[in-house]
């Protein structure tokens, strides 16, 4: 989801995590493949969609957590083909930065239109920064029989389970872990 926090809170760069998977090319896209259990015959497979900053360390760590928990293969394709937004775009204090920030939700991630056509169970772990009407739209779509789960983490900021996760801060790490546990529960229920 796009919101004001998306345009103003810089991502946290940790660089301390060692990925447990490997990078390979799938369908022409550089893709992180987390198969930490080594189960090549896994019937549980997840494609991880991340935020505007691309393949952040925290996202890769989350993919490894889900792969381990679910005995699944988690793929994180570089849909931006190396053209994700760089961290120095925050704050958007030049016309060029503002244009680049505005381009993403208007083109690549038109969220309000995308959620209207959901046809599979879907999970939304929103932060306090997400527009309440958009979160409500997801909840209403899910309640029409498509299934899923929506929760707002009222103490967390936009990107708290992605590139903005501050894993050095105890409360942030605890909520990051709780969020990935919720994702694990959701996928365990919906992939079986």
Concise synopsis of the structure shown:
The chain has helices at residues 4-8, 57-70, 95-107, 111-114, 132-146, 170-190; strands at residues 22-26, 29-34, 45-47, 73-77, 122-127, 148-153.
Would you mind describing this structure in some detail?
With 192 residues, the chain is an alpha/beta fold. The protein has a single domain, classed as Rossmann fold, CATH 3.40.50. Helices cover 38% and strands 16% of the residues. The chain is built from six helices and six strands. It has helices spanning 4-8, 57-70, 95-107, 111-114, 132-146, 170-190; strands at residues 22-26, 29-34, 45-47, 73-77, 122-127, 148-153. The strands form two sheets. Strands 1-2-4-3 form a four-stranded mixed beta sheet. Helix 2 packs across helix 6. The longest helix is centred in the last third of the chain and has 21 residues, at 170-190. The radius of gyration is 16 Å and the shape is globular. Mean pLDDT is 82; it is low at 5-11.
Q: What is the element layout, followed by pairings?
A:
Elements: H1 4-8, E1 22-26, E2 29-34, E3 45-47, H2 57-70, E4 73-77, H3 95-107, H4 111-114, E5 122-127, H5 132-146, E6 148-153, H6 170-190
Parallel strand pairs: 3-4, 5-6
Antiparallel strand pairs: 1-2, 2-4
Protein name: Dienelactone hydrolase domain-containing protein
